[in-house]
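Support reply, case 0932

Customer input (verbatim):
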Amino acid sequence: MKGSIRNIVGAAAVMLVGAGFVAPAAGQQDEQVVPFSDPSRPGKVEVSLVWGSITVRGENRRDVAVVMRAGQPSGRQPVERPAPPGMRRLTQGPGFEISEERNEIKIEASSFRPNNGTLEIRVPLRTNLELGSVNGGGITVENVEGELEIESVNGGVVLTNVAGSVVANTT
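Our regenerated output:
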């Protein structure tokens, strides 16, 4: 009996420790660097985000750095009922998918929960952008030259020191 209790306690400890590696906790951040397949040509970055804000900064670089900051819980979170006996409630942190194909980098939120987080993206100075955000934040772009398509629903759009073709919409 003692051996089986130790096994259960050990398995629970491994699950709790392992859960910390799934996604950054509130207030933490995770950074990914994604190279373009042909850095000699201007690339394109597409971002689709629900419940969060997007900040893009142009820099003298040849790749794209994406910093994902987990959202802070707001005061208006729904009250969660306790899990039924013999069950446990699984919680999922904010998640993002990043892919690169033919000099186009796509970033999508894989979670549609409030306070999904903030994306801070550093791109080469000459980069085309297609950015979309719904609820929870606005879009800020600084120091980028290229074709910019920006749409924000329930958030603002701020463009600073940008050049090229710009289509921006906010509702």
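We compared this against your earlier run and they match. Two observations from our side: The first strand starts at residue 29 and ends at 35. Residues 2-19 form the longest helix (18 residues). Please reopen the case if you see a mismatch on your end.
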